[in-house]
Sequence to fold (189 residues):
Amino acid sequence: MKTDTIRKCIVTGETLDKSTMLRFVAAEGVGIVPDFKKKLGGKGIYVSNAKSKLKKAVESNLFAKGLKKRVKVDENLSEVVESILRSQALHAISLARKAGCLVLGLDKVLDLIKKGKVVFLLEATDAGDDGAKKIASHAKDLEIYSLFNSGELDKELNRENTVHLAFISGNATNLVRETFVRLASFLNN
Fold:
């Protein structure tokens, strides 16, 4: 790994590829803010992509220690970050739909799985057991993400009853997977 691509987590002390970490900067008059697009000026402070690590960084005042100066940190920073990551992932789903890389509905999804055209799946967290079992029985080695409830998906896609989604090959699909992996890692670590 190139040294210009690795950063040290202020919580664990681990050095990791910065693309897998959460970046924050101290904004004048605001305090610590997320900078996931890495466009804000100033020294970046990195935290492993995990909600638990971010909470520890806030609780233990590690941003101030890392910057060696007093900085304001929102005690709800982990909720703010989760909201941003969720929003990015939902937006990526919309982009995949516009790019023609998204298929919706149980029957259509099952048909594409049988034809071997699905790259990965998204299933609403409130999906019924019957549909979820059908998908699971056919999905075999496919990744199945469960990150949003049907209401969130309905709102983002401007439709009703959005439960089973399949992503087929395309550039937008890669973007969706990246946002899903990042959100899932944040929530589960």
